[in-house]
Amino acid sequence: MVTTGDGIGEHATEAAVLALYQELRRRGVSSFEEAYAELKLAPEEFERCRAELTSLGLIVPTNAIHATVADVRDGNWRPESDTVAAVDPEIALLRLLERERERLREHLAEADKAYSTLEILAGTFLRAGALTRSEVEVEALTDYRRIQQVLEDITDVMQESSASMHPGGPTRQIPERMLDRDRRQLANGVRVRAIYEQRDVGRPEMAEFLRRRVELGVEIRLAPAVPMNMIIADQQFALVPIRPQDPREGAILARGSVLVRSYLGLYEHCWHTASPYGDDVVPERGGDGLSEQQRAALRMLASGMKDEKIARSLGVSLRTVSRMLSELMQELGASSRFEAGVRAVRLGWLD
Question: Tens digit of pLDDT for each residue in 73-90?
Answer without folding.
Answer: 555 555 556 787 888 888
